[in-house]
Amino acid sequence: MRAYERLEKRFERLGNLYGALSLLHWDTQTMMPRGGAGARGEQLAALSVVCHELLTDPEVEKLLDEAEREGGLNEWQAANLREMRRSWVHAGALDAELISEFSRARSACEMVWREARPANDFAAVRPGLERVLELVREAGRAKAEKLGIPPYDALLDEYEPGGSSEKIDRLFDDFAAFLPDFLEEVLARQEREPEIPPLGGPFDESSQRQIALKMMETLGFDFDHGRLDTSLHAFCMGMPQDVRVTTRYDENDPMKSLLTVLHETGHALYEQGLPRRWRLQPVGQSCSTSLHESQSLLVEKQAGHSPEFFRFAAPVMREIFGSSGAAWEPENLYRRCTRVERSLIRIDADEVTYPAHVILRYRLEKAMVEGGLEVKDLPGAWNEGMRELIGVVPPDDRDGCLQDIHWYEGLFAYFPTYTLGAMSAAQLFDAARREEPEIMSGIERGDFAPLLDWLRKNVHEKGALRSPDELISEATGRPLDSEVFKRHLKARYLSG
Amino acid sequence: MRAYERLEKRFERLGNLYGALSLLHWDTQTMMPRGGAGARGEQLAALSVVCHELLTDPEVEKLLDEAEREGGLNEWQAANLREMRRSWVHAGALDAELISEFSRARSACEMVWREARPANDFAAVRPGLERVLELVREAGRAKAEKLGIPPYDALLDEYEPGGSSEKIDRLFDDFAAFLPDFLEEVLARQEREPEIPPLGGPFDESSQRQIALKMMETLGFDFDHGRLDTSLHAFCMGMPQDVRVTTRYDENDPMKSLLTVLHETGHALYEQGLPRRWRLQPVGQSCSTSLHESQSLLVEKQAGHSPEFFRFAAPVMREIFGSSGAAWEPENLYRRCTRVERSLIRIDADEVTYPAHVILRYRLEKAMVEGGLEVKDLPGAWNEGMRELIGVVPPDDRDGCLQDIHWYEGLFAYFPTYTLGAMSAAQLFDAARREEPEIMSGIERGDFAPLLDWLRKNVHEKGALRSPDELISEATGRPLDSEVFKRHLKARYLSG
């Protein structure tokens, strides 16, 4: 057997074990009884170690070198080999001691954070975060050495192959310059509009679930290869041939679960559309984290926040809830879901201000990784950034730098993917609409096939064959920039 | 680190991976969408291979030998070491080629059986079963060589440590001699009784589930460490600290789900009561398959088919179903659930005739493993055995030798554990009642604590510290025999 084929065998095995790991994670969030948490943590750790050993076995490096020398691979195999090496670099860059130290420090810090956030006690979690940052810097240096790029970019590469802070700076600086005046204008315009009448309610969970299932079906979700459940935090998890979406239901606000389900179904359609032939191999996975986010935001924000979508959704919701009145007119649902405000909390933010929340975090975490910002100065830097970017200052750290779990559980260089995803979504949706004029009229009729067909062909079926940059360029005719996204915001929030 | 401690580390890892495997199995039966089956099969296979490699690694044999030489172990450690060796022997006795050949043959045979049973087509599955039997014989010989006992006993040892067909023959022959006249008498007596009025119905699933949950809670099931779901075939799966029970619901017969839940909760209480300190080690698992079955049958048949239980359960069920009338009197529920008949199907059989179904299968499979019976002669031998043991002959193979999946999926030497379990249940329950006079009056009040306390102390908390024989002797003052079971049947079905 050739070296490449032996690698495929090993990654097939790994792919199956990753599938098992995913199921354990899914169950933890959806089904597991409370008292099972301790044992589950140990099962996850044991299985992760097995995967890590399989991937960092010295045999793998030899096979990678040999397969690269052998050559003779077709386009998919070559991309697969490239992705194999990338997984191997990220898994092998950190030595066993750093991994276990990092894992301990993250768990400890996250546990303190769970208490510190509601208690608004940044001082309590500061030592934990300092330790985490110290290890993140160490990991960044180790990966930087392997990849020959700066530490922040080396951390970013795990989520965004080939991504660079230079490119991100350009996109984000441009948007940060655009936002203040634009936001001012949107808010002024919004103030002149009539009030939106209340929806009524409460709206029982089983009706909300019925709507969610109907929407998923309409979008093209395949229930033979997936399901919908409930969890505290919504997510989508794709094991090959089995893609699981979760949401939660707020009896007072049925729009939340609707939009959450659109978002997670966007992720799910990507997973269900990945190339079957390569489902256990690295090249059969999603292209990058930002591309994954682009698929959820494309469905939720680009398609799902359009007036056309609400013309389809309004009668469906009215019928299932037995509701009526002005609040349930498509125009009013649209206006309700596209309200903009200077908010403190990222996860509640609208489409216009969300990027500013991300830009803040990106700038801070980059400075922390590079050594230009220390943990003790984080709250001050946070508040200063909020004032500058969004024009509000948090009254306390609870609604400031303590609000997101990411850093406290050791996740750095992940935040920018949210906004890269939003920009990619705008650019992809724009290209799709230009190529397929049926898309918007389809959405209005509840027919998502024209959109899904375009996404399947231009994004989903490509897996990780291309880099994110190449994929966007091929699909839209130009590299990713912030122009189409800004144009989209102007069209939605300032015209019509 | 001493060899014993290194073994504990390895088995801890294995225990965690077994927990992950269990979750994959549970999910397959309860949650998995249909189209996920193929990928799940591959995940299960990949994880099983990892476990098998960890257990059969040459290092393990060296460590076992060394730990046995080292000595210096306390009682639990020594028992753990004994169980480690047993797992290792059973895992390592078959070479990789035989395992994969066996796995292929079983899957192929089972798939044909799924069509052959409804089609009443034994000829179709005959070649598949012949191949499976050939490999079972080979496995029996391989294990026999390692253990120095006959092949059937060597296969049995995986489920019943130290079990032997000589002991089983004695118990089963005795019961087979007792049954014909006894059954005649029970049926004659039953015929003289008045008819049982119908329950009414249908009984909706959600009320049945409410009753099931109430019963589980009453029995002492800990919902912080477990849950109840629905599946086509009921089962109980214990991952450490997380024990999952399933049932199914028949809208026309609410007694089925009630009794199924009692049965599975008996298994679950055993799992929840196993010694926490040893939860990932072999000695922390159940003592044997028959002991596991004894716990389910003790709850379902010994306690749950008693007049006292129905005096507790009748008002609970009446209230939840909103039912009333003579059928819902405790006495009539008791009579309904203790009907006896000469049935063709094992899984529908009553407490009196069930052992005969098992004895038939035990005798046939033993003869098949030893070479005294060939697959081609199975249907004839089956019908002959049914006539002799139960007094009825199946009209076709569908309700004859095609009815159970066990052999067709390669499971031999498992059947006797059902009836060893029934006999153990009778003997344990009898001892418990003699030691704790409060047990029956507790059950009548819906207080299972006196029974559960006794089981915790005498069975659950011992894990696999003792052999099944030792455990029964210590708990009941005598080795397992069929006397107490026969006495129980006489008391329940011929007196009062």
UniProtKB/TrEMBL annotation, chains A, B:
It comes from the Bacteria. Broad specificity carboxypetidase that releases amino acids sequentially from the C-terminus, including neutral, aromatic, polar and basic residues. Belongs to the peptidase M32 family. GO terms for molecular function: metallocarboxypeptidase activity; zinc ion binding. Gene3D superfamilies: 1.10.1370.30. This is Metal-dependent carboxypeptidase. The active site is at E264 (proton donor/acceptor). Keywords: Carboxypeptidase, Hydrolase, Metal-binding, Metalloprotease, Protease, Zinc. Its cofactor is Zn(2+). It catalyses: Release of a C-terminal amino acid with broad specificity, except for -Pro. Its EC number is 3.4.17.19. Zn(2+) binds at H263, H267, E293. GO terms for biological process: proteolysis. Binds 1 zinc ion per subunit. PANTHER family: CARBOXYPEPTIDASE 1 (PTHR34217:SF1), METAL-DEPENDENT CARBOXYPEPTIDASE (PTHR34217). Pfam families: Peptidase_M32.
